[in-house]
Amino acid sequence: MTLKTEKSYRFLLIADVHIDLENGGKNIYFIHAEKNLARALEIAKQRGCSFIVNAGDTVTNASGAKEEWECYRQIIEESGYTGQIFEAMGNHETRWAKYGGCSIEDCQREFIKYTRLQDKPIVRTEGKTYYSYVDRNFGDAFVFLALENGVSTNEIDNFSDEQMDWAKEQIERYTREGRRVFLIQHAPIIGFGVGDDVNHPAYQGSIRLTDQNGKAFCNNQRFYKLVRRYKNMIWLSGHTHVDLRDEVNYSNDGGRACHMIHIPSTAGTTRLAYDEKGERVLDRTFFEDASQGYLVDVFEDRAVFKGISFYDGQTYPQYTYAIYR
């Protein structure tokens, strides 16, 4: 008798790779980034991942990103990993524009070039850094948004009218078609969801819904409404790097929002802590073995996110989240 095997597919979920070659390698902050990416790619090969989802901040980009992007491509090529990698554009992808080294448009063109968007089986408007991908297993839809308006994530409206119109149309259509929707957008919202202490945020650089004077960031608010309206959607984010051990990496806001998964960091995780004044802060001490993400097994009725160490390949049953359709 032949046993029926439950149909599934698997992908690797990473974020905040932070390839770091600042000032020609003189001022490197993310010192373990390159080898941790190589380890993650080896795990993707060993564990039979169909593809990799990268939720953004692939480069560090404080002194130009070209060499960092080239290093990213070289690590992939030397790894022997041949599957697709789908990247979202994070805030660091446009960071060099903050210092006047180039324009935001230049940064966006580098993202398109080095992630090889032209060669991916995706749907997008020409020249744009946001796109969608429909997998061939169950027809699940992956919608990748981009932090397109600059690096200071907490000080600006991060999305254009055009991108939010596009995102709304994509999510509505895929939901109407009965597809499972994964939304990949790099930065969480401060005081909401995942990746931080919601009541006392340790990191002040997440997306805000208003400016310091209370004026609305309209498209940030449109994004917030999307993740609260489509409750069956799964939103995957990075940005704060918070370690799995701090247990703030899943939320659905008590059933009032979509499923939210935060990916710690490939380059190096942070820890929630308190400073000498008793204020909530992030401990940014990076250890080589603190490189984490998720191994994701997707079945017809559920997606199972298994926390994984990229340092030694260990999975964490205590940091596993099963999200049912």
Overall 3D form: globular
Instruction: Kindly report the CATH topology.
Output: Purple Acid Phosphatase, chain A, domain 2
Helix share, percent: 10-25%
**Helical segment count:** 7
Radius of gyration: 19 Å
Mean pLDDT: 95
Going by CATH, the homologous superfamily would be Metallo-dependent phosphatases
The major β-sheet equals: 6 strands, mixed
Order of helices and strands: EHHEHEHHEEHEHEEEEEEEE
Low-confidence parts lasting 5 or more residues at pLDDT below 50?
none
As for the number of domains, it is 1
Q: What CATH architecture do you see?
A: 4-Layer Sandwich
Strand order of the largest sheet: 3-2-1-12-13-14
Description:
Helix 2 runs parallel beside helix 3. The strands form three sheets. Strands 3-2-1-12-13-14 form a six-stranded mixed beta sheet, with no helix packed on it. A six-stranded mixed beta sheet has the order 4-5-6-7-9-8, with helices on one face. The protein has a two-stranded antiparallel sheet with strand order 10-11. It has helices at 22-25, 33-46, 66-79, 95-98, 104-114, 161-176, 218-229; strands at residues 8-14, 51-54, 84-87, 131-134, 141-144, 181-184, 234-237, 250-251, 259-262, 271-274, 280-283, 292-299, 302-309, 315-324. The mean pLDDT is 95. It is an alpha/beta fold and 325 residues long. The protein has one domain (9-324): Metallo-dependent phosphatases (Purple Acid Phosphatase, chain A, domain 2, 4-Layer Sandwich), CATH 3.60.21.10. A hairpin with a 5-residue loop joins strand 13 (302-309) and strand 14. It is built from seven helices and 14 strands.
